Each structure stands twice: as structure tokens, then as C-alpha cells.
Amino acid sequence: MDEVKVVVAHSERATLRVGDVFLKIDADQTRIDVEVEAMSLAPVPTPKVLWREPPVLALAAVTGTALGRLGEPSPASPAAWAAAGAAVRRLHDAPLPPWRGRSREAFEADLDRECAWLIADGVLPTDLVTRNREIAAAALRPWTPVFTHGDLQITHVFVDGDDAITGVIDWSEASQGDALFDLANLTLGHEEHLDDVLAGYGTDVDRDVIQGWWSLRSLSVIRWLVEHGFDPSAPGCEVDVLRARM
């Protein structure tokens, strides 16, 4: 019998792996609804839905290996990163999903609240927070909505060799959103691969906006990461991303 491996577990959701099956358990069934529908609409490889019995969603494992991990050098080639950029472009060119994503105002309100907490509780130096808040302002501009993954971490993109994207996983945050938010999430902590991703994406983008999303995302998630047992100060992770902007 295959042993059960805990992939991730916290108070909101858990993912278990048993052989080639992933079992996702989520307290919020809306996220599962979004994930299932988004995977059915996305024009990129996604996991196969095996069955669903709330609160559990069973998915088949995708082949290949993850593009990398935050805080570690990526084993993937520049061509693989470019292939990821091309896959993201196909997603962004697809028809919009029928549900809206977070507004610019919501991102800004969350950012201001988290920056205030980071400074008031002495979690990060004031000058580090203030400088990155200034950089994050570039992301807070009007954007034309596209079909976004919404949580496009490198651990969610699987490749086989140099140019085959075998699967994109974890679609619970998919929505109408800013294309550059996806590109920033994909390259967070791996800025050296931004040129490769953009070569595959195939169009010019505003790099100041991508840097703004790097700062905004890192500032906004530190409290959540700490409260759920993750370490944003680990080498190469969110705090280092913020320090790189100084």
C-alpha cells in the first residue's frame, strides 16, 4: 500500500498524496469550485479530476518536475522557463473566466494593513517596509483583466525536459486579474529567469510593475506565512526579496 504523504497542511486546507493521487481537503468549498471550473477552462495542461466528494477533491498527479522552489536554485533550463512563459501567455489570451478577481483597491487596503502591522510589531525595519511600499505602488494601477492563475508559484508549474509544460496545478485563486501579477508570482525569488519567461511570453511588459508586484506580494503575505508555520525569512524567500529592492 502506498504511504500517505502530507504535501501541505494548515488550518485552511490540506493536501495529501497517496501514490499518484492527490487529495485536497478545503474548508472553503468555493475555492474547490473555482479550481475545478478553472481547470476545465484553462488552455494549458492541468491535473485530471478523478472524483469529488466534499470536502475532498481527488486529482491525478501530473508528470514531470516542478520548475523549482522558492529559496533554492532552479534546476530547470532557460528553455523550460521560456516554455512556462509561453504557457502563461496562452492562459492570458484565453477567454475570461466568468468570475471577477480582487480589485486594485482591495490589494491596496491589504497592503496598507500589512505594512502597518509589520512596522508596529517590529517584524521588519521601517525603512525596508517603507521603501518596498513605495515600489509596490507601481503595481497599483488600472489593468485590463485577463484569465489569471492567481497563485502561479514555481512549485505549481511542472516541466519535462526543456520545452514541455506537463501541468499547472493549484487553481483555487484563478480569476480575472492582472497579467503581470502572474508573471511576478512565477519569477518571485528567481529574478534571474525573468528574461527567459518574457522571451516565452512574447511581448514587452513594464518591469517596474513586476517589481511592484514582487514587493506587494512579499509584504502582504508575511503575517499569513508566519501564522501558518512557514518561514518568510528563510534564504531566498520573501524577506530576501524585499531586501533585494533596497
Considering the chains and any ligands shown, give keywords for the structure.
246 residues; Aminoglycoside 3'-phosphotransferase, Chain: A, domain 2; 3-stranded antiparallel beta sheet; 10 strands
The assigned CATH architecture is Alpha-Beta Complex
CATH secondary-structure class: Alpha Beta
Q: Could you tell me the mean pLDDT?
A: 95
Number of domains: 1
Task: Give the overall form.
Answer: globular
CATH topology value? Aminoglycoside 3'-phosphotransferase, Chain: A, domain 2
How many beta-strand segments?
10
What is the CATH homologous superfamily assignment? Aminoglycoside phosphotransferase (APH), C-terminal lobe
Describe what you observe in this structure.
The chain has a single domain (63-243), classed as Aminoglycoside phosphotransferase (APH), C-terminal lobe (Aminoglycoside 3'-phosphotransferase, Chain: A, domain 2, Alpha-Beta Complex), CATH 3.90.1200. It is built from eight helices and ten strands. It has helices at 29-41, 78-93, 104-120, 126-136, 179-187, 194-201, 207-227, 238-243; strands at residues 4-9, 13-18, 21-26, 49-53, 56-60, 65-66, 146-148, 157-160, 164-168, 175-177. The strands form three sheets. It has a five-stranded antiparallel sheet. The chain has a three-stranded antiparallel sheet with strand order 6-8-9, covered by helices on one side. It has a two-stranded antiparallel ribbon with strand order 7-10. Strand 8 and strand 9 form a beta hairpin. Helix 2 crosses helix 6 and helix 3 crosses helix 7. The longest helix is centred in the C-terminal third of the chain and has 21 residues, at 207-227. It holds the Pfam family APH. Residues 42-203 form the Aminoglycoside phosphotransferase domain.
